Amino acid sequence: xxxxxxxxxTEGLGRVAPTKEGEEPVFYSDWExxxxxxxxxxxxxGINLDEFRHGIERMHPAEYLSSRYYEHWLxxxxxxxxxxxxxxxxxxxxxxxxxxxxxxAPLPARQDAxxxxxxxxxxxxxxxxxxPKQGDxxxxxxxxxxxxxxxxxGHTRLARYLRGKLGIVDRVYDSxxxxxxxxxxxxxxxxxxxxxxxxxxxxWGPETSEPAEMIYFxxxxxxxxxx
Amino acid sequence: MTTTEQGSPPPxxxxxxxxxxEIAARVxxxxxxxxEKGFVTEEAVDKIAEMYEKEVGPxxxxxxxxxxxxxxxxxxxxxxxxSAACRELGIGGVQGEDMVVVENTEGVHNVIVCTLxxxxxxPTLGLPPNWYKYPAYRSRMxxxxxxxxxxxxxxDLPDSTEIKVWDTSAELRYWVLPERPAGTEGMSExxxxxxxxxxxxxxxxxxxxxxxxx
Lengths: 227, 214
Description:
By secondary structure, chain A is α+β, with helices and mostly antiparallel strands. Helix content of chain A is about 35%, strand content about 15%. Chain A contains nine helices and five strands. A five-stranded antiparallel β-sheet of chain A has the order 4-3-2-1-5. In chain A, helix 3 (about 50-55) packs across helix 5. Chain B is mainly alpha-helical. Chain B is built from eleven helices and four strands, in the order H-H-H-H-H-E-E-H-H-H-H-E-E-H-H. Chain B has helices at about 20-35, 40-55, 60-70, 70-80, 80-90, 120-125, 130-135, 135-140, 145-150, 190-195, 200, and strands at about 100-105, 110-115, 160-165, 175. Chain B starts with 19 loop residues before the first helix and ends in a 12-residue tail after the last helix. The model of chain B has no long low-confidence stretch (mean pLDDT about 95). Classes of the chains: A alpha+beta, B mainly alpha. Strand 4 (about 215-220) of chain A pairs parallel with strand 3 (about 160-165) of chain B, so a sheet runs across the interface.
């Protein structure tokens, strides 16, 4: 979707304000810790990674740009789990009001040492979305390719700033779950992934870019065509 | 002249930043439901968060870099398959399943960004700083990397240095193998690792010089 999240090349968003390394806490608050830790449990509760990302993209642009990072995660967990009927919107609202009025009230007590162990194990091992596909990759390293002019209204990982641009295949990777279909529960549909190299002058125009700058972007095969 | 006074136009949909206490209550409500539904426990939340506060961080990537600087065969393996090479050192996990290391060399400088969200190699660099996830960096790094590196990060590269910007749009997680600083011959892996900064592995900085104070 042509959403606010697709930020490459957008102007007017201000200067980067880096914090000195080591100065920023990993989490600012208990709520940030909780949202982060609920990532894998929310995926296990029935959201796939692409639905998770698409949920964030469906935030209102003003809210997307003005909210703290982990609010994006909170938003997509709530939105996806409500839409899937896993949690009830009214119950969530009532409980939110309760904790707003009683911020010190405890969470429900439940122990499950085995689940804790298993969740930590997932964090340590990871879950790859690499998945075998029948057939050879269509493009080869060194081959010129053009990015499709493709504007689906659902989730895609094809950034707007590169659509229609000409690049050179730099690396060919294995195949991975295809976000465009997986986000709609239309199949994992694995596709080969390519790293494609673009000269910044091709992307931004010779008058508004600098020399000796290259952009590398990873594309699933259906985003590309031979040039 | 007529005057019109019919109130204010409707607000643009969307909201301004929510008060932190409201967010905290929303999170607690969701967490309570997760606990009751058996998705998580308070203990698991605490242990998972603690893992990224205490165990996972850029010191792990620094260890990998120092080994690559001292062991050319390991360096080859790291550039060939970063996730496999990191596993040799017991380093891996979520958002590092398929890592790719790109090497700085004389005249070539690499830097990573995620314009679509905030993809980042957690197992070796830890969780990303907020500036990496916020709109300014994500919008500008692909358009004017040399300016951002110089003005915002104080990294002044020669005009002849080619800048390669890696926009991590798929499931590969890129990070940078910086150049080993001069004057570090004879240093141990542990001493070398202390020179490797998080920023040098993102590509917005360089490793510390030996003997520098911080």
